[in-house]
Write a structure and sequence with these properties.
This protein is α/β, with parallel strands linked by helices. The protein folds into three domains: 217 residues, L-fuculose-1-phosphate Aldolase (3-Layer(aba) Sandwich); 161 residues, L-fuculose-1-phosphate Aldolase; 200 residues, NAD(P)-binding Rossmann-like Domain (Rossmann fold, 3-Layer(aba) Sandwich). 43% of the residues lie in helices and 14% in strands. The protein has a seven-stranded mixed sheet, with helices on both faces. A hairpin with a 3-residue loop joins strand 10 and strand 11. Helix 6 crosses helix 15 and helix 18 crosses helix 24. Bound molecules: zinc ion.
């Protein structure tokens, strides 16, 4: 851990106190071993002249749930300092009152809600206050001799405060314990089981005190915890079906589809093989505010995943019953992460960003827990304290930001031929509606958040099987298959048919779809409201001369879809077909093909493009919208359907 302060960068932020606060907050946010995803908070106290020309002392405090790594001045809530310090002196204050009073004391009503630790920041009599949940500090304090170790590391430089629930109670405790102290003797406060504060009148000094204090804890761990005999990491072959079954069990318990992300890196793997895993994993999170993301403990995956998740859920209910004071509604009982012996860890979330957040927190948690083990034993906060944090309304409010979730959120889709035309449009539309997408193509595009590009020749069964496994590894399962890959062979009359043209069309436009359906079936059986959409063609109901190689393959594909609908209905898997026609923004419609087909019908290209009853152009986006609808709940009671998307065609009607 080293200071990232850079004189040139700092000067770009200008000299005013709030800009420097933005700069050092981002420096803290940049290091995930200090703060993770919305963790930690920072503040600065400064004078502001209001509209009436009066000077007011204002605490700029990070907005609740905001992320230090990307914070801007707008991410800080400006609150009148005198109101906050008066609040610290109150004997009691409910959370609702605290939030209301803090909002009323803000000088900008559009700013976010102040962090739940705003009063504590106000109590500390320095201009800059920095607060993190540094891994090294919490790993040291979360041990049986934690307080002694902290004192051994820091001596009298820091004030040590036993764990108190964050918010008003903590601010009040710090206020009481610091009323008569000489603040100049201290560089920081360690909150046992929670994190660390540093402070100074100078932005750089406050930040660098944080770095310096955390570094001391890191050095202590390095000196005392390196000799841990690492568990032999026996890795079993990736069991993709078991992961899909685990994800389904977790999703059912949650009542909504979850993305599951496997981590089988060396740390996760050796953790999963720990001898005393239940004793370590079964205690609690690194710092209490992780609980809203990770729940108190993970599920440990046994031989029967459904049973593992059911047991977890009943233990969660018992935990709720043990601690609920009554009048609280139990949250869902689904785990947010799993330890899977011999395979690693799995993070669950309603979306890929959510599962990534959980995955990051888990990675830090298991590393810190093993440090603690080496320092005398991992010891999380008592269950009761963690329960209070999990059910604290101010923590839950952080999760409730944002509106309703998109219709396909948490679903996993596989799209073939996804790098161009209808496939590309379908992949983008599914992603926009909240699904995680595996985009298969022989020339794949770029992967991005929520979209995994996989190179796959759809005529090769082994490549398809590998792509299915990659999809499950990344997202946890497969719910939606859009079987789209196709080719438009050159027009040849039957008498002139080239055997290679014929064979290639049959292979890509027909057989490859059968390979895909077969490979996807075991995962679809474990999918959430599973659904297949086949991209057919108008040529099925209305073939044209010269395109036998294409039409015959597509007609065969149509029968394949109908048989699949019959065979799979009992498994709850829906299979529907779209029959697009004259979608000209796709790869197969080159200018040459367009000209030939238009000439064949004696039309101009523009006439040919709108040669349908409605006289409209049909785009790949139009087709993608129907594919999403067929895959989603709108068509949840429909299987075996064939939907034309062709602007209306007399021969089809
Ligand atoms: Zn904190």
């Amino acid at each position: 851990m080293n200071s990232l302060w850079n004189v040139a960068q700092a000067s770009e932020f200008g000299g005013d106190p709030v800009s420097l606060r933005v700069y050092t907050s981002r420096l803290l946010g940049r290091d995930p071993s200090l703060v993770l995803h919305g963790g930690g908070n920072t503040s600065v106290k400064t004078s502001v002249v209001n509209l009436f020309g009066e000077s007011e002392e204002i605490l700029y405090i990070k907005g609740s749930g905001g992320d230090l790594a990307t914070i801007t001045e707008k991410g800080f809530a400006p609150v009148r300092l005198d109101v906050l310090t008066k609040m610290a002196r109150l004997k009691q204050l409910t959370d609702t009152e605290m939030v209301r009073m803090q909002r009323a004391a803000m000088i900008d009503s559009y700013a976010p809600n102040p962090s739940v630790e705003a009063i504590l920041h106000a109590v500390i009599p320095f201009r800059y206050v920095d607060h993190t949940h540094a891994d090294a500090v919490v790993a040291t304090s979360n041990t049986p001799a934690g307080e002694d170790l902290i004192r051994e590391i820091y001596g009298p430089r820091v004030l040590v405060i036993p764990y108190v629930m964050p918010g008003f109670l903590l601010a009040r405790a710090v206020y009481e314990q610091t009323r008569n102290i000489d603040w100049s003797l201290y560089e920081g406060i360690v909150l046992l089981g929670h994190g660390i504060f540093t402070f100074a009148d100078d932005a750089r000094e406050s930040y660098e005190r944080m770095i310096c204090l955390v570094k001391l804890a890191e050095e202590y761990i390095e000196a005392h915890a390196i000799s841990t005999a690492s568990t032999p990491s026996s890795q079993q072959p990736f069991d993709s079906k078991k992961l899909a079954a685990l994800r389904l069990a977790v999703s059912k318990t949650k009542g909504a589809p979850m993305i599951a992300r496997l981590d089988d890196g060396p740390d996760a793997l050796s953790y999963s093989n720990l001898q005393n895993l239940p004793a370590i994993a079964g205690q609690g999170p690194l710092t209490p505010d992780h609980i809203i993301r990770t729940k108190r403990v993970p599920v440990i995956v046994g031989g029967d995943v459904t049973l593992s998740v059911e047991t977890y859920a009943s233990e969660y209910k018992a935990y709720f019953d043990r601690h609920s004071p009554g009048g609280l509604e139990m949250l869902d009982a689904a785990p947010r992460w799993a330890v899977w012996p011999g395979q690693g860890t799995v993070a669950f979330g309603r979306s890929t960003p959510d599962s990534n957040i959980v995955s990051d927190i888990v990675r830090h948690t298991l590393r810190a827990q093993q440090w603690s083990q080496a320092l005398g034993g991992w010891k999380a906060l008592p269950e009761k304290d963690l329960f209070e944090m999990e059910y604290w309304e101010l923590e839950q409010a952080k999760l409730k930001k944002g509106g309703a979730s998109p219709v396909l959120q948490g679903r996993v889709a596989v799209v073939t031929g996804a790098a161009s035309g209808i496939g590309k449009a379908a992949a983008q539309a599914l992603l926009a509606q909240g699904a995680a997408v595996a985009a298969l193509d022989i020339n794949p595009g770029e992967s991005r958040d929520g979209m995994l590009a996989i190179q796959c020749d759809m005529t090769k069964r082994d490549q398809i099987a590998y792509a299915m496994k990659q999809t499950v590894r990344a997202f946890g399962g497969i719910d939606i298959v859009v079987s789209n890959a196709g080719t438009f062979p050159p027009s040849l009359a039957i008498g002139q048919m080239d055997p290679d043209v014929w064979q290639k069309s049959i292979e890509i436009n027909l057989s490859s779809h059968e390979y895909l359906l077969q490979a996807a079936l075991p995962y679809l059986e474990l999918g959430w409201e599973p659904s297949v959409v086949i991209v057919g063609s108008k040529n099925v109901p209305a073939p044209g001369p010269g395109v036998s190689a294409y039409s015959v393959a597509k007609a065969g594909l149509n029968q394949l879809a109908r048989v699949a609908a019959l065979e799979w209905a009992g498994k709850g898997i829906r299979v529907n077909t779209v029959h697009p026609n004259a979608v000209f923004d796709t790869g197969i419609w080159t200018q040459e093909v367009l000209e030939k087909r238009a000439a064949h019908y004696g039309l101009t290209i523009q006439e040919y493009k709108t040669n349908n009853l409605l006289r409209v152009e049909v785009t790949s986006h139009d087709v993608a919208s129907v594919i999403c609808a067929l895959a989603g709940p709108l068509f949840g009671r429909t299987t075996g359907a064939q939907i034309p998307i062709d602007g209306g065609n007399e021969r089809v009607i």
